[in-house]
Specification:
The chain is of the alpha/beta class and 434 residues long. It has 15 helices and ten strands. The protein has three domains: 3-129, no CATH class; 135-233, Rossmann fold; 239-429, no CATH class.
Length: 434
């Protein structure tokens, strides 16, 4: 069964069942209002949204081939419990006593058990009979070959012969979905190179047991059902959490742009009066999965500051910084136009800072795993920015990369909130800027 077909059936089944439970409970109760009344229809839509939101948050829409049914049943029961708590809470806030609502809630509570029956039947029995076809993989290996009955192996390539151009044609023509790396524990540099090359693609990356100790130090990993392999997780946020993160980005950036508009207009005027050149500084940066975009900043340096030097890092007491720039940079006022980048979707509020293509090309050659920063949207601020100063050398970039990887492997909406508060404190103290 195709993944899309499986998802559509699961969503339609959940929607139909939750709606049926609501209206059956409404009919079975003593509520003397028609089910076609707008109160009933609105109530059903609100509660249905809550359930689908929770099921997505509890990761209950993953492909059947990637889950163990009993683990999913446990998550389902937890989701149902939290859903009832939330509905109780909403009822309390709007002064609706669900328990005494003429028998509605007792009926609803009993009928919810049908969700467990439906899910177990569809995901457990039917899902087991019609599992998706085995995932097609490309294997990079050295040492002894390992059998992988859970996958359909298209081709095997020796680690020592790895070249990004070698598997390119195979990946395009054979419908490959994942990469498996087998190793006796040696060739660390080659392993990191392969992971870096495929990290910003749609291919899943699986690691053999002898590499566990290596990947634990750098990546977030996930068990693969019925397999000894580990799957590297480059983006721990679920699809739903990413959607929420995007909504938060749009809301905050819009709010800050409205509040700060007078200050931004004054800053633009001061820049124009202080030095020759444009108010906004535009620069090409690399974003999510290596996509190039134009980053906006208030110009804090003299016009054509890199005309004779090419791309270079800013230095302490940099003579290229203008008089207005010396006030803007400690307060991060020069970063405010990047709110436009956030609204456009090029950036997020929190994430690794975007880097210029020339620097990325240089750094990816000398720093293993540097391109893993491209697995998430870059940010106006980030963990590295509140813990470390501006980049001044390759060594400082290596130091900041540890913070970036820590953020990528542990990112959550809660962590984003902490970083935002820490950023405010950093700006107020005027730390980490020159």
């Amino acid at each position: 069964m195709l993944r899309r077909t499986e998802l559509y059936i699961t969503l339609l089944g959940d929607t139909a069942l939750f709606s049926a439970i609501f209206f059956i409970s409404w009919k079975a109760s003593e509520i003397n209002v028609s089910m076609q009344n707008w109160h009933a229809l609105t109530g059903n839509l609100i509660i249905l949204f809550i359930w689908l939101f929770l099921f997505q948050s509890f990761d209950l829409y993953r492909s059947r081939g990637h889950v163990q049914i009993m683990n999913e049943m446990v998550r389902l029961i937890r989701g149902l419990f939290f859903g009832l708590v939330i509905i109780f809470g909403i009822g309390f806030l709007v002064d609706i006593d669900f328990i005494k609502a003429n028998g509605f809630f007792p009926s609803y509570l009993v009928l919810l058990s049908s969700v467990i029956v439906w899910r177990f039947f569809w995901r457990g029995i039917v899902g087991e009979l019609f599992k998706p076809p085995r995932e097609k993989v490309l294997i990079f290996q050295n040492g002894d070959a390992i059998e992988h009955p859970e996958f359909s192996v298209v081709k095997k390539i020796q680690l020592s012969k790895f070249n990004p151009k070698i598997p390119a044609e195979i990946l395009k023509t054979d419908g490959i979905q994942g990469i498996v790396i087998e190793s006796n524990g040696h060739s660390t540099k080659s392993i990191f190179k392969i992971i870096s090359e495929f990290a910003d693609t749609q291919y899943e990356i699986f690691i053999a047991p002898k590499l566990y100790s290596l990947v634990y130090n750098y990546f977030l990993v996930q068990n693969v059902p019925e397999s000894s392999l580990l799957k590297i997780v480059f983006h721990p946020l679920s699809t739903w959490d990413r959607f929420l993160k995007r909504l938060i980005d749009i809301f905050i950036s819009t709010l800050v742009l409205i509040v700060m508009f007078p200050s931004m207009a004054l800053t633009a005027l001061l820049i124009k009066l202080d030095s020759h050149g444009p108010v906004l500084y535009r620069q090409k940066r690399l974003g999510f999965r290596g996509k190039e975009f134009t980053l906006y900043k208030f110009r804090s340096m003299v016009s054509d500051a890199e005309k004779h030097t090419g791309p270079v890092w800013a230095r302490k007491n940099d003579i290229r910084i203008t008089r207005v720039g010396r006030y803007m940079r400690p307060l991060r006022i020069d970063e405010l136009p990047q709110l436009i980048n956030v609204l456009k979707g090029d950036m997020s509020f929190v994430g690794p800072r975007p880097e210029r293509p020339a620097f990325v090309e240089k750094l990816r050659r000398v720093i293993p795993l540097y391109t893993l920063r491209l697995n998430v949207h870059p940010g106006i601020t980030g963990l590295a920015q509140v813990r470390h100063r501006y980049d001044t050398s390759v060594e400082s970039v290596k130091h900041k990369l540890r913070y970036d990887l820590h953020y990528i492997n542990n990112m959550s909406l809660r962590m984003d909130l902490k970083i935002l508060f820490k950023t405010i404190l950093t700006v107020l103290k005027q730390e980490g800027a020159h």
